[in-house]
Amino acid sequence: MSKRLSDEQYEKTKSYRLKQWLDGTKDLYLDAVEMKEQQPFQEDKKLIEKRKKETQRRFARLYDVEHNAEMRIFRKIYRVFSVLFCVFLVLMLLTAVSHLPVIGNPGNPTNNEVAQRYIESGLQETGAVNIVTGMILDYRAFDTLGESHVLFIATCTVLILLRIDRKKGKNEPGAALESDRVHEPKNDVILQTAARILVPPIVIFGIYVILGGHLGPGGGFSGGAIIGAGLILYLNAFGFEKTERFFTAKTYKKLSFTALACYSLSKCYSFYTGANHIESVIPLGTPGAILSSGLILVLNICVGVVVAGTMYTFYVMFRKGGY
Amino acid sequence: MAFVQNLPFISIILSLFAGPLSSILSGKKAKWVNLAVITIIGCMSAAVLGFVMQSGKPYVYMMGHFPAPWGNEIRVGLLEAAMALFFCIVMFLCMLGGSRERSLEVEEPKENLYYVMVNLLLSSLLALIYTNDLFTAYVFVEINTISACGLIMIRQNGRTIEAATRYMIMSLLGSGLFLLGICFLYDVTGHLLMSNIKEQVKILSETGTYHIPLLVSLGLMSIGLAIKSALYPFHAWLPDAYGYSTLSSAAILSSLVSKGYIFLLVKIFYRVIGFDVVRDSKVINVLFVFGIIGMIVGSIDAIKESNIRRMIAYSSIAQIGYIYMGFGLGTTAGVIASVFHIISHAATKALLFVAASGLTDASGDSTDFFDLTGAGYRNKLAGVAFTVGSLSMVGFPMFAGFISKLLFAQAGVESSHKMLMTLVALAISTVLNAVYFMKTVIRIYTPEWKAGIEKKNFTKVTAVQQPAKSVALVCFILLNLVLGLGSEPIIRLFENGLKMFA
């Protein structure tokens, strides 16, 4: 027989807290999580005045349709024409599509010797079990080389647009950090616990997808995106202080330079030998083994590093403007 | 295989490699790397040009261990090598001429990013010139677009950001249409390699199958590239993008980026679709009409403009109109005139931008038309250079612009039913060109009152004060003279190059 507890003792047990939580009489996280109420957004009065004036001025010049006959006529014509143009475009494209070869027909022009060779001898020639990987990283590696530089240059453009320069002193980094945190609770227990559990498997899964790119579905682009997502989750849970210990703009640049240079140099070798009909010394290995299919594994890793860095950098730039 | 034949591939890889390399260097080092890369690639292109001239026939270069329809390949002929060499020269001079403005207008920690953009832009231009594969062309069109955006907005003020946004939207629309065109073409021919598509298209056009998708695909690709190179109704992004970005960006954008797309269009006409098929489809008539409207509307806009940088930018719209008019004639002579105009406009427009910045330097950095009064006396070299550029644009003999106008007129006379329109449009446009360029030349050589100079704080600028810009200006003037006086071998080279395209 269980003995009956006194009320005081009972209130200390876990079952009582569970009951409280179930009834909704007490929020367990109320004092445990540091929360900050959202401050209502306030703006400088001068700025408001200035903006109002500017808007009015602009409105008077451009959008005062009532008193601007030219504008009114233009708008009407514009609307009519845009609708007509869209209808025309849709009809034209639909007509063109209806005249295209029927999907799935074996006699289609796309089912020619190009696709045939990819499917029939892709495995022998590239050593990759996954034909798609073999195609993008061996048969048509030049396109993919360009494509990974597209990602790199996109990041550079975002850096130009959003990076806040510390030297100028206009925007203090401290101020940026604070404003970044105003609208969010710090040290969110739920998020941190979830991140602690989820981030390692996500990153490991990403690495697996990259390394297995030549063996099954996956590859540098998808694996890199997974790792990038894991990094972003980690950043959200633990803040910049922790991530900046191992990942800053410098790290990103060095990593992506190493990856892209590695890609360029290895492809340089294979393009050069290929064009000059020199036998390549890189063995293809046994298809299906992890160390197989020549350079594809290396290239996948390079692409993965670039993609992960790009995703993470995009996120950081849009959130804080520097790291 | 001779070692020289590797050089086109090495030049593409070298400039691709220099992009990420610049991102980890400091701005100053990146600048030297960039200049070195452009010089090396220029030398290599010259060697390739010499090789192709000697051998007299084009060659294909396999990118990897797999032959063409399976792997990638690039193709090198006379026209490609000549274009690569010319683009390198112009880019080098643009970078040289704009170095002072860059150090003033680009934030110092971001300076190396500028060179990332320029290096990757160069690689994409080279790839567009050399590629023999439509999809590779699309990939490098993407790099070209993004880096051009970066070049516009690296000088950060409200106008450039707005201009970059506009450029981005229009340019992505163009890329999208181009990609749709490639998809249609791939679906009906089953190939992405230019030579193979041409064989298939020939069969298809003879039997008349898939006529509509073929036509739509040609239309989409032409319009897509026309949007990206600012043909008349799609030109709204251009004046801001060229007018407010930093000097070397404006010069590079106007003289190289839009020309890269036009060269790709020439390749599509000759190497992908076949020029006979293009002529029979009526797509070129559309290009012809819009080209002519652009020639006139662009000039009228330029006359109305009082900001000198924007005026030169509007003039670009008119010149792009000339190039499309040449395509629209539908004769080989017309295309040769267009190709010549590509290089003569590139050489002249970059010269005008650099010279105009020299004039504004001597006018308290004001780009207003009336503040330029007497600027030709305050900065003598820039004044001379601006006059040369203006005369070339108007079509004064001795300069590059004259030869291209002459070629256009000759091509127009040969074409039977488009003769009248071409000649009339040329005449009107030339007069309008003369109106705004001569107006500016007269303005810069009108003496300013002494009191005015003191009041507005104008300073004299000698050639020695800005050595890089002076060197660039002198080289540009020489380039213009070379194109204008020694045009005969260049035109013959283009004729042979176009024959090699077939």
Quick check: average pLDDT of chain B? 90
Order of helices and strands of chain B: HHEEHHHHHHHHHHHHHHHHHHHH
How many structural domains can be distinguished in the coordinates of chain A? Answer: 2
- Biggest sheet architecture of chain A: none
Tell me, briefly, the overall form of chain B.
globular
- Shape descriptor of chain A reads extended
Amino-to-carboxy terminus distance of chain A: 63 Å
How many distinct helices of chain B?
22
Give the helix level of chain A as a range of percent.
Answer: 55-70%
Spatial sequence of strands, sheet with the most strands of chain B: 1-2
What structural class should be given to the helix and strand makeup of chain A? mainly alpha
What is the total tally of β strands of chain B? 2
Please work out how many helical segments of chain A DSSP would assign: 12
**Assembly type of the shown chains?**
heterodimer
What are the low-pLDDT stretches of chain B, counting only 5+ consecutive residues below 50?
A: none
Task: Outline the structure in words.
The complex is a heterodimer of chains A (323) and B (502). Chain A has 323 residues and is mainly alpha-helical. Chain A folds into 2 domains: 53 residues; 192 residues, no CATH class. Chain A contains 12 helices and no strands. The longest helix of chain A is centred in the first third of the chain and has 30 residues. Chain B is mainly α. Chain B has 2 domains: 267 residues, no CATH class; 221 residues, no CATH class. Chain B contains 22 helices and 2 strands. Chain B has a two-stranded antiparallel ribbon. In chain B, β1 and β2 form a beta hairpin. In chain B, α1 runs antiparallel to α2, α3 crosses α22 and α14 runs antiparallel to α19. The mean pLDDT of chain B is 90. The interface between A and B is large, with 60 and 64 residues.
